[in-house]
Structure to design on (369 residues):
């Protein structure tokens, strides 16, 4: 008897499981392990039961997916045995080293009961190939791999709001600067997207855009989108008022998603007024000092209707203004007020508008004559 066989003849099931060579034979056999364990099985036929148990344990420990039911495995082996029996009638005296542990153990089990000799080894080779294919098919049929889950990364927004009476100076992550007027808000994806910088504006803001050719800077005000790469411009977009875009430096493109979609390019000193209710667009010239006066603590009215004056003063001073009687529909006022109190502004306007006013904390009442 082989000396190596003798040292393992008293192996128990646990010993086989822990033996690295046995594990290799079961999981990834090569020619040497196949030859060795075939000889061992021949010399120690009484150890067949322990070896079969050990083999099942090694296979179970190596599985990363759910087990196939034992009944399905037995059915598969029955089909394989039937195929082997048919092949037996056609092939004789083929000496082949068995491919894996299963073929060797089942070979000697069959040899004990039927007296088959080495000619069965070739059949076992064919059987193993059939087993591999069949088990792979059954596993994928009954246990399909789940589709990988798509993990959605939540979008985080930055939001800034300048309450009435307050103006905010912002420096964005990529270097652009924004002055946000009172009663205005700005919203954008934190750190922006990789291919563009998109901001949503309600109210009024002045932008000094940091140049980034790969990421256009876009300001959305409802259906109007203003796009720039590196420039400075002012946008006024308060509710129920025309959108006013004034370009000071650089170049912008204005995309008007209205009933008749249009695009306009502006050069420094050019502006657009967009009446969303009437679907009207008008090119205008503007005075840069007047447009940016609000950033220098200066209120400028230039033939401004009373509803807009009311909105400006409410946002500027953080008050609520009420008309005790309605002014004339064609009433428009002009005036320039630098860093003035609300009382001084109302007094200056009252001379031409002919109204009396009363200030009670944050409540203001105007009565027109």
């Amino acid at each position: 008897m082989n000396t190596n066989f003798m040292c393992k003849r008293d192996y128990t099931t646990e010993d086989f499981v822990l033996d690295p060579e046995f594990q290799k034979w079961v999981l990834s056999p090569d020619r040497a392990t196949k030859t060795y364990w075939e000889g061992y099985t021949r010399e120690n036929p009484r150890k067949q039961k322990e070896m079969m148990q050990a083999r099942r344990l090694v296979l179970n420990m190596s599985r990363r997916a759910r087990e196939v039911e034992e009944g399905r495995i037995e059915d598969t082996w029955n089909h394989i045995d039937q195929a082997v029996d048919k092949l037996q009638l056609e092939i004789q005296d083929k000496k082949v080293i068995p491919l894996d542990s299963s073929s060797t153990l089942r070979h000697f089990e069959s040899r004990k009961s039927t007296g088959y000799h080495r000619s069965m080894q070739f059949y076992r080779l064919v059987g193993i190939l059939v087993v591999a294919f069949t088990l792979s098919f059954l596993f994928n049929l009954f246990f399909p791999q789940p589709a990988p889950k798509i993990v959605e990364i939540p979008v985080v927004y930055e939001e800034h709001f300048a309450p009435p009476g307050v103006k905010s100076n912002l420096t964005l992550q990529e270097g652009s600067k924004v002055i946000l007027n009172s009663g205005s808000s700005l919203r954008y994806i934190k750190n922006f997207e990789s291919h563009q910088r998109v901001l949503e504006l309600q109210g009024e803001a002045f932008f000094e855009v940091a140049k980034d050719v790969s990421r256009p800077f876009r300001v959305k005000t409802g259906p109007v989108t203003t796009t720039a790469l590196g420039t400075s411009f002012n946008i006024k977009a308060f509710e129920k008022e025309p959108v006013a875009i004034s370009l000071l430096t650089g170049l912008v493109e204005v995309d008007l998603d209205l009933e008749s979609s249009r695009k306009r390019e502006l050069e420094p000193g050019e502006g657009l007024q967009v009446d969303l209710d009437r679907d009207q667009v008008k090119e205008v010239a503007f005075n840069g000092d007047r447009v940016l006066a609000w950033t220098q603590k200066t209120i400028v009215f230039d033939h401004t209707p009373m509803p807009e004056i009311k909105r400006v003063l409410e946002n500027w001073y953080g008050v609520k203004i009420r008309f005790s009687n309605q002014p004339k529909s064609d009433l428009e006022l002009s005036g320039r007020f630098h860093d003035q109190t609300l009382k001084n502004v109302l007094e200056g306007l009252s001379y031409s508008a002919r109204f009396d006013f009363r200030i009670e904390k944050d409540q203001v009442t105007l009565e027109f004559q």
